[in-house]
Amino acid sequence: MKTKKTQTQFKRIETKYILTKEVLALLQEEWQDYLIADDYPASTISNVYFDNKDFQMIQDSISHLHNREKVRMRTYEERPNEESQAFLEIKEKKLDVGYKFRLISNPLSIMNYVTNGLVDNTTADIEMTKKLHLLRLRYGQLQPMMYISYKRHSLRGIKSRKIRLTIDQDLLYRTENVSLTAGNYGQPLLEEGQLIMEIKVSDAMPQWLAAILEKYQIEEQSFSKYATAYRRQIDDQKEVSALVQ
Fold first, then answer.
1. Which long-range contacts (CB under 8 A, 24 or more apart) does 163-167 make?
2. What does pTM read for this prediction?
């Protein structure tokens, strides 16, 4: 597998849409003269989200508190091990603009870094260490709390590489055995036949893309994979409690 080039800081406007496969097929016909496959077009993405034991960070994000931070570890390898290439990312949102800070390491080093503050040569990042310190002051001990995976197809603009569009399918989540190396399994996050399309631009959406969305009356939806998975597991807990009673 190719090694991904590392960009450590991002600033972009991200819009998400929940579609059916039938609608996606129509859109693909429309944008074929504007978008082409990205450098890494197909991948299986696995994520581990860190939080405290009470899921306070994602609750604050849902309530639009602080900068709606999320801390996650991500890999693009289908069957990762403890030494696979992995990314630690801290995501923030300010005035609907997304910011992402990232370092490249491996699952074992990242787990030690986030949960225990242990630094090695792959995690010696001053900016990331400062941000993690502030999050620990607010939330206490951070630990792996949610696993989310999906298959992604990535496109970019033909005229401008600053335009990116991703399509995520087969989303799974779990709250037990939360590890990148434990295998790709879990509960479905979306209804059958649904997928997530995300448009990422550094400035305004191009007119041709806005016109396509308007033609098919496709409207932006607020959607967070981690927040949705958190709500799902809360609902599951309520159902189990009701059955027990």
1. 163/35, 163/199, 163/200, 163/201, 163/206, 163/209, 164/38, 164/199, 164/200, 164/201, 165/31, 165/35, 165/197, 165/198, 165/199, 165/200, 166/197, 166/198, 166/200, 167/24, 167/195, 167/196, 167/197
2. 0.90
